[in-house]
Amino acid sequence: MTIEKRLDQLEMKLSFQEDNIETLNTEIFEQQRKLHTLKGQVSYLVQKLKEAEPDSSGTDEVEMRPPHY
Q1: Which of 10, 19, 57, 65 is 20 to 30 A away from residue 49, measured at CA?
Q2: How large is the average pLDDT for residues 55-62?
Q3: What is the pLDDT, as a whole number, of residue 66?
């Protein structure tokens, strides 16, 4: 194998690797963006759940179903 062929192969491999790195970088960026969005949504849902919980400070009564249920 000549040096020119070897050099061509190395250049093709390098080009392929650069393309792979760019693709992976784009995917990671997109995943980080989605993760940030999901974290915000989860925080919002946690806040809404806390707001929806009944206030348990003040009464010890537990709502129970009547026995005929």
Answers
A1: 65
A2: 57
A3: 75
pLDDT band at 56 (very low <50, low <70, confident <90, very high): low
| Chain centre distance of CA 12 | 34
- In whole angstroms, what is the distance from residue 38 CA to residue 46 CA? 12
User: Rounded to whole angstroms, how far apart are CA atoms 44 and 36?
Assistant: 12
What's at 42, amino acid-wise?
V
Q: Which residue in this structure is represented by tokens 């061509």? A: 8
pLDDT classification of 67: cutoffs 50, 70, 90: confident
- What letter would DSSP give residue 5? H
| Token pair in block for residue 58 | 């003040």
